[in-house]
């Protein structure tokens, strides 16, 4: 699906020719209610951060061909279809800086069925567009979780649109939720599995982590047995492996405010370690607020790693544990008390970097959880300026997988993920 | 695509069992970020127009099977997937009245990975839902134009979603814009044409009118010749015929504020009448404000009908000519002066019914243009209470095809079309 805004989220980038940045591009959907012959287009004015580019300057790319405005006016066999966006190229040596830009466009279109004096129509649109720099070489790997697009997937975006978004911002890893993104879960059509692999290839993405659940309180009258819990975990390990994922995060039911996992967790994991080794898929319990790193739950996982010596049971860190400010942005997923007091489970844990460093050898994957990156690429809650250098200094080279969990406004997830990647890569590239 | 609101626009209807109305249904998408085993669902409260139905009462239909709440809790092999909506059936003898209802739902879901005291989560959603009565037997035929969904098609809805919406509200005719809705226009892939016919069959829809354009000012230095204009019209006649349409509305470029068509119109039409007869497709010029029925332009069309005796050139009436109040709702398609004065071309023509009656034998198709039907099913601009009885009294039995042209807010077209059909059918059924 196209973005409803005429200015699309995807496709905003600097243009590099012969190693030099010569301008920038943006992608527009046709703002009219019909497709038109390209000869009826009459230019596009682009205003970036207040700087105006006259309507005759930008180049138009339509149906795979690029035109100046004069060439466009003379065309006989090119169209701007409703379902085929145009790429607008604006010459500008050096291009645009990394980060959030105010972009406005005025698209001019001649409509012969309007009276001649008014047949040149103006369509305007504006957006905050996020320019994401290329990922720095070496070190961290950059991915995104479909969770970031909650409420937009299947409504505004297909799963393919999500993958296209992730690829467009220059990330190379895709994390999914098994019970969210696999049609026909737990038994997808084999044709869908082929489609999935085709999509990974098309968008140049690596399947990273697969989120799963072990709903210990599946029924009201009894909890899952260890055998049932293991069966659920193994089902997901097999499915994740078929889809190309290399780790599975099982979310077990909990028994306390401190998120102590149901005791079956250990049996379920132990019974599944051989299978995990056979499939070469790492089982990753999630360290998630309000559980910090120095905590019996985390220690229980580390004990199991050390006791078994398994290479297929490691930690997954959710960066919400590093928050230095409470997340007070409401979403369907975040609850705040009526009294205005920040409830205990929302108080920032501000886990120190030293604790992270201590367990880092056991950390397989990082969910880069966040709620808001502002127009200046400042994260309101997560101290990326400490986290990213710590990871790099200690030579950690796994996936940082964006997990946006702020307000679920339409298209906000896609926009925020771009901002977060611009921020993370700026920090990593500055070193 | 699903509607972003948890309460879907489609599927809101009364339930008829053995000829009696026993309740109503609504369709919900899963409000969570993951799909879940149905045993984790814990009821849904439905509040309609302030009347509360307790959470244990509604029935759930998931993956083709229907359950009471107790049955749902005991299931082992049913899921509420993110991409598969649930149908909720609420018992209520007599069902709900035609029109707009305030609907609120509270969906309860157990989430074992939350601390036990808070693991029963509530998801709320609300909507104004429109109950559309079945189309009255005989007389008028009810259709919808894809134009109604401008800006939502290809962004929030696929073309198939539009057809599904049209079928869901009980309309049987679909009108399209050739240059808007045919991928690859003017040369669609033959496979797409098969897909199109498959969709018509699947949704029980008849292809009605095909909107086309003859852009006489296609190029800036010269107008189309009569031959070129005829070629464009004939291209669309052939394509419309392949897609199963029985009429084509060509929109010619105009030369005046009164929308006088470019003089080539007549040559283009005359050169195409034989082809139209061969294909049995009616060419329908559109009578559209600010051109009323008693006007030289309309008279020119009637003259051609009478002169040629052709059965393949008839009038299409856009009901905007009957407006009794100016449309001051702004949309991308409607312009209003900065001085607050209603510009001449927006002043309501209020064409009298007597004028309609006079040309009715020549009228092939009616585009039921409108901009707003309020919560009481009152159209703010179009006097349907006069138009519908006039058409029925004079035995006109063509298509009334909804053409929503109000504010282009997301999903508003779909909602307004349901309201208009509820209104039109109430008026027709009351006779």
From TrEMBL, chains A, B:
<dbReference type="InterPro" id="IPR013022">
    <property type="entry name" value="Xyl_isomerase-like_TIM-brl"/>
</dbReference>
<keyword id="KW-0119">Carbohydrate metabolism</keyword>
<feature type="domain" description="C-glycoside deglycosidase beta subunit">
    <location>
        <begin position="2"/>
        <end position="113"/>
    </location>
</feature>
<dbReference type="Pfam" id="PF19906">
    <property type="entry name" value="CGDB"/>
</dbReference>
<protein>
    <recommendedName>
        <fullName>C-deglycosylation enzyme beta subunit</fullName>
    </recommendedName>
</protein>
<feature type="domain" description="Xylose isomerase-like TIM barrel">
    <location>
        <begin position="164"/>
        <end position="426"/>
    </location>
</feature>
<keyword id="KW-0456">Lyase</keyword>
<dbReference type="InterPro" id="IPR045959">
    <property type="entry name" value="CGDB"/>
</dbReference>
<keyword id="KW-0413">Isomerase</keyword>
<dbReference type="InterPro" id="IPR050312">
    <property type="entry name" value="IolE/XylAMocC-like"/>
</dbReference>
<dbReference type="Pfam" id="PF01261">
    <property type="entry name" value="AP_endonuc_2"/>
</dbReference>
<dbReference type="GO" id="GO:0016853">
    <property type="term" value="F:isomerase activity"/>
</dbReference>
<dbReference type="InterPro" id="IPR036237">
    <property type="entry name" value="Xyl_isomerase-like_sf"/>
</dbReference>
<comment type="similarity">
    <text>Belongs to the C-glycoside deglycosidase beta subunit family.</text>
</comment>
<dbReference type="GO" id="GO:0016829">
    <property type="term" value="F:lyase activity"/>
</dbReference>
């Amino acid at each position: 699906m196209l973005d409803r805004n005429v200015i699309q989220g995807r496709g905003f980038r600097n243009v590099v020719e012969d190693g030099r940045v010569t301008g920038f591009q943006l992608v527009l959907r046709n703002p009219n209610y019909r497709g038109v012959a390209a000869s009826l287009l009459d230019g596009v004015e682009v205003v970036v951060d207040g700087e105006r580019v006259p309507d005759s300057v930008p180049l138009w790319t339509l149906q795979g061909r690029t035109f100046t405005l004069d060439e466009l006016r003379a065309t006989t066999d090119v169209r701007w279809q409703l379902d085929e966006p145009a790429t607008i190229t604006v010459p500008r040596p050096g291009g645009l800086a990394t980060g959030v830009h105010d972009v406005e466009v005025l698209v001019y279109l001649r409509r012969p069925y309007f009276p001649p004096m008014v047949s040149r129509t103006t369509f305007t649109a504006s957006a905050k567009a996020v320019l994401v720099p290329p990922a720095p070489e070496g070190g961290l790997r950059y991915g995104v979780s479909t969770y970031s697009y909650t409420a937009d997937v299947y409504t505004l975006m297909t799963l393919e649109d999500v993958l296209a978004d992730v690829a467009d911002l220059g990330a190379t890893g895709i994390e999914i939720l098994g019970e969210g993104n696999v049609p026909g879960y737990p038994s997808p059509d084999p044709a869908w599995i082929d489609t999935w692999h085709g999509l990974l290839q098309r968008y140049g993405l690596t399947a990273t982590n697969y989120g799963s659940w072990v709903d210990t309180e599946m029924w009201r009258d009894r909890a899952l047995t260890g055998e049932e819990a293991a069966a659920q975990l193994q089902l997901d390990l097999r499915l994740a492996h078929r889809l190309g994922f290399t780790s599975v995060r099982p979310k077990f039911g909990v028994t306390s405010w401190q998120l102590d996992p149901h005791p079956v967790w250990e049996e379920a994991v132990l019974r599944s370690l051989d299978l995990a080794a056979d499939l070469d898929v790492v089982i990753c319990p999630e360290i998630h607020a309000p559980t910090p790193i120095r905590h019996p739950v985390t220690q229980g996982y580390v004990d199991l790693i050390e006791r078994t010596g398994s290479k297929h049971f490691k930690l997954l860190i959710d960066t919400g544990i590093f928050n230095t400010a409470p997340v007070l942005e409401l979403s369907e997923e975040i609850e705040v008390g009526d009294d205005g007091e920040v409830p205990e489970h929302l108080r920032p844990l501000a886990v120190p970097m030293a604790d992270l460093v201590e367990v880092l050898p056991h950390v397989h994957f990082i969910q880069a959880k966040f709620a808001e990156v502002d127009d200046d690429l400042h994260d309101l809650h997560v101290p990326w300026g400490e986290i990213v250098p710590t990871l790099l200094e200690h030579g950690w080279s796994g996936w940082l997988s964006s997990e946006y969990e702020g307000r679920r406004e339409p298209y906000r997830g896609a926009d925020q993920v771009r901002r977060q990647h611009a921020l993370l890569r700026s920090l990593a590239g500055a070193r």
